[in-house]
Every structure is written in structure tokens, then in C-alpha cells.
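Table 4 source record.
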Amino acid sequence: MPSHSIPRPARSWVPMRQDHPFGIQTLPYGSFTRSDGRARVGVAIGDHVLDLSAAWPALAPAEEDLFSTGSLDRFLAAGPSSWDRVRSTVSRWLSDEREREHVHGFLLPAAEAAMLLPFTVADYVDFYASEHHAANLGRMFRPGTDPLTANWKHMPIGYHGRAGTVVVSGTPVPRPRGQRRTAEGAVTVGPSLRLDIEAELGFVVGVPTTMGEQVSLSAFDQYVFGVCLVNDWSARDIQAWEYVPLGPFLGKSFATSVSPWIVPLAALQEARTAPPPRSPRPVAYLDDSGEAPWGLDVRLQVSVNGTKVSEPCFADMYWTAAQQLAHMTFNGASLRTGDLFASGTISGPTEQSRGSLIELTWNGREPLEIDGGRRTFLEDGDEVVITATAPGPAGTVVGLGEVRGRVAPGGGRGAAPREPRHSERQR
């Protein structure tokens, strides 16, 4: 277990149902505004938010000023000892009857909080860590060959994304425009006809490193603060035409949605589990066979317009976040506070556990039943919601909240694009 794990907290006195996913076992951090428009840092507890920007200087005046800016940036950079101290303090405030009268004035209903992007995203990296997802796409687009590329089981495959288009849950997602190529080879330009989602976990870096410094597997939780939900929106038709030879660009860079609450790794200790068996054995800097496991039993649910379409589980992922971070820094690349790296699509071995529409509809050939009709990719007005939970201590549930996004018309055109004909579908 990590050096900064803390004792299990007592039950909170804040009124809420016993099985609330944002109970005392979770205590996620976020940034929000109220009617005055000022950004504040908060901790979610049940259906309330504790205003840390106000409570911390009032109740812990001798402590470091971590929350006055209204974002998590300063807190993330403070490192594991501060993360532990704040979590222990907040847990005591919310559990100890003697603290009740002091804390009560800093609580507000969650419905009164307008959530913001909780930290400044420094760099964004997206991985491709699910063997099931990679193999499904390989079977679609390279039939008759090995569905995995030759390098896939030797290292976590990833690419650098665009930090400036990481947006908080609830932000509308304009339909992207770009180049597409039809099956007949004609190149066309316009709104994406194959807009997709990818259900992922994101990992938020707190402690920076210098160039040349490598982060080992065992040091993962000394640098990474916590976890959020990610929807890595993907324009499959744009991506298919552009990705050779340098990988995704316009097909991915238009928007990446993240949940507003960051769940600290300290809340996920009961969710840690061994990852799937690996063959061949990873090279030394990725070999976690002698390490405490960083697989996570996080169970997601993906809904489109209120219809549940998938239930992926992060425990099925081949490469863990600790391996991803070790690989990301192995060449000496530095970390910055606020770096975000995402797991890649979370998919499992069953049809019900596929984390993207391209898999769920098998590249558009097997439509889903949504809104009383047969659907493949996203239409304008569609709303996608991803939620997740994990096991907590003593039979409790740790919630990761939700990441929500609605597709808006893009490129100055108001009409939703029609469903593509078979001849236009990605090959």
C-alpha cells in the first residue's frame, strides 16, 4: 500500500443516505462558483459541498495557503504529505461531533455549485491500454492478420493530445469538421459523420519532475494525485483518413471531457487489484510482477440519451496507470503539475463491456436501439453520460461522479448530419 494511505474515517454526520458514493470514504476535490462568480475549491460530501477556500483559512489558519486561488493547482503541487494532511483534516471535520458547529457554516447544497475545470491542464496524453479495444479495432480494419500491432504488448501505446480543449463535464461539444475519404477514394470536407465516444479514466499529476528524471512503478502514487472520468470524443471518419503515419490529430483534438470531481488515489485503496496476466513478460522498467498492484476495480456505465449502452470495467485493462507513467517518463520527459494522462478506451471481453460506439456497433454494421430507433454514431443533440463506482472500505462505494456532454452542431451548420451510406463508412 502507498506510504500516504490513511486510516479509515468514521461515518460523516452530514445528512445523507448510508450508501452515498460521495460519502466520507470518497471526499473528492473540485472547483466551483456560486452566485458571486468567484472560483472556490470544494470537497463533495453527500449532496453537499464543503467550501475549502473559505473553511481552510478559518479552521486551519496555521496551515499552508492551498485553496485561495479557487483551483486545485497549488494543492496538487504540494505533494503527498499535504494531500494526506488535508484529507485527514477534512475527514475529522466531517466525522467529529466537536467540529460540527465550526464546519456547518461552510457547507452548501451541491445544487448551488456551478462546477469548473478543477485544475489547469498542463499536458494531455492519451493511451491505448485495453487489449480488448485494440484487438476489436484490429479485427475490424486488419482482418486475417494479428489484430494487435507488433509493439502493443511490449509498451503502453500513446499519443500527445491537446490540453487546451480539455473541458469540464456539461460543456457542449460542437461537432468537428475535417477531411474524410469515401470507400471509393474521394476526399470530402465537412462535419464528421461518425462521431464517437471513448469511456476512459484520467490520472492527474501533482508533483512535477525535472528533465531526465524517471518515475518508477513504485513511485506512481508519489506523483499522481487522483483520478477523474474522461470522454475522449473521437471523429472516426476524420481520424481514419489522417492517422497514417503520425496518429490522431483533428479527429481527437476538438474536445476531451472530464468529470469535475477528482477522486484522490487514497480513496481507491480497496479498489486496487492485480491486472490481467501479461505475455510476453514486460521489460524491466514496466515489469510490475514484484510491485503492489495498480489495476483498479472501477466499474463504468455509459448512457446515450438515457439509454445504457455499455458497462466497461477498468480491471480488464492490460496496462496500468503506473506502467503508463513509467513509460511516459522513461526517456527523461518531465512532468508538470496538472499533467493529465488518460487510459484509452476501457473495453472488456463481452459485447456489453465495450467502451466505444465503433465497437458496440461493430463499425456501424450492428446498430444499437436508442430512443426507440436503430443508431450507430452520435447525432446532434445526443447526450452522453459516463458514470463510475469502485469498492470502498467496509463495504462502502466510492463514486467518481459523472462526465456529461451533449453534441452541438458544428462548423456553422444547424442540421444534424445524416447517417452515412455503407459506401461512406470507414474501412
